[in-house]
Amino acid sequence: MPTEPLFRPISGATESFIDVEFDGRRLAVLGQRSVAAALLAAGVSRFRSTPVSGAPRAPYCMMGVCFECLLEIDGVANRQACLVPVQPGMKIRSQEGARSWEAIHTASGGSNENTTEDSHAA
Q: If I label 92, which of 11, 35, 58, 120 is the partner at 20 to 30 A Cα–Cα?
């Protein structure tokens, strides 16, 4: 959970805090930035775990290339936290292990169309 922040805002201007929920706990974060930047500034150092070893992972590139910042945001898994603006009241959860088919299927709109894999199975 949150520890001493490694990242701090550059500007000396007073910025407003907003409340979000991270892994079931209320967390006050700076607004007007990405979810990843807000959580890092609040001291969160672990966003997800790897599917194979369970090693902790956190944002790396902060521009949507590396996929290290994947979180579940407002019930939608596999969101790139560096690309999502933080909003008051967001419910954010760490993502543990491999993605599930249900999460992928839900994120794609839950269509009942056959996938390539389904069509080859018949």
A: 11
